[in-house]
Amino acid sequence: MPHMGAAAALQVCVLLSAIPAQYFISQRYGTDPAQRLQITERLIIASWSSFTNTYLSLDAWADRLKLWLSQTRTCLNVGLLILHFRNWCYGEKETKIGDNEAETHSYFAESSHVRSPKPDHILFSVGQVMVHKRLGYSGVIIGWDGRAKAPEEWLQHKYPPEKQHLKDTPHYRILINKANGFGKSTAYVPEEEITIIVGLEVVHHPDMEAYFSGYDGSKYIMQPWLGKIYPHD
After folding, report:
1. Which of 4, 60, 99, 110 could be joined to 8 by an S-S link, Cβ 3.0–4.6 Å?
2. Distance CA 133, CA 174 (A)
3. Per its UniProt record, what InterPro entries does this chain match (predicted)?
4. In this structure, is the dihedral angle defined by the CA atoms of residues 214, 215, 221 and 226, taken in order, positive or negative?
5. Distances (CA, A) of 59 to 6, 11, 63
6. DSSP code of 177?
């Protein structure tokens, strides 16, 4: 049952207080006891009718419930739109209703498939600190794919016709260093846009401890669960 707010409670109090107030007025200014009784009875009936129509009517509560559900659906739709926009801008996966778990986690180097043996053409490793050659932000590698694994619409948007060949090159998932003030949290970039730096940069990101247990001066040390996925990095 919907919650009765402060405004509704105030309305109930006003309706209930009107009965003794009217009775007092009728006692002071009425000329006939019978008339005063009739006025009081009519006021009680009117107040009770108003109260029952507002708070004891199933139709009234049904209308309130419909309004509440409508507002809830509106908030949900707005939330989904925000999530869709965030995923599109940040290059993160989108979870679609009906997709199985393997499919929804196979994009953007998030697959839990063990990367063994490691292909020779994968030049970089999980835990290495990098700088984006073109955009200048720094970060740490948390995953890689032998070739780009992303929804086709995302690839078409990211790579114009003259750069379509990049889809077949290694791609790396990056936690972006918050100290850069870049605004994005993660990225999925091709190998040719990455420069590795050693012992020069410490990455600040709220998810670092989920992926790494420490820093040895050259790269971050993977947590055991991540090391099982990338045993040769």
Report:
1. 4
2. 14
3. Clp_protease_adapter_ClpF (IPR053189), Hemimethylated_DNA-bd_dom (IPR011722), Hemimethylated_DNA-bd_sf (IPR036623)
4. positive
5. 21, 19, 6
6. P
What are the φ and ψ backbone dihedral angles of 99, each rounded to 5 degrees? Answer: -75, 145
Residue type for 37, please? L
Name the β-bridge partners of 132. Answer: 194
**H or E element that contains 130:** strand 129-132
CA distance 96 to 167: 23
Reply yes or no: is the peptide bond before residue 33 cis, omega within 30 of 0: no
- H or E segment to which residue 208 belongs: helix 208-211
Q: What are phi and psi for residue 147, nearest 5 degrees?
A: -150, 165
> Does the pLDDT value for residue 141 go beyond 90?
yes
Measure Cα distances from 184 to 88, 128, 160, 229 in Å. 12, 19, 22, 25
Q: In degrees, to the nearest 5, what angle opens at C-alpha 101 toward C-alphas 78 and 172?
A: 85
Please answer whether residues 137 and 177 qualify as being in contact, where contact means their C-beta atoms are separated by less than 8 angstroms.
Answer: yes
Q: Give tens-digit pLDDT for 179-199.
A: 888 878 999 999 999 999 987
Mean pLDDT for the chain overall: 77
Q: For residue 28, give both structure tokens.
A: 């002071």
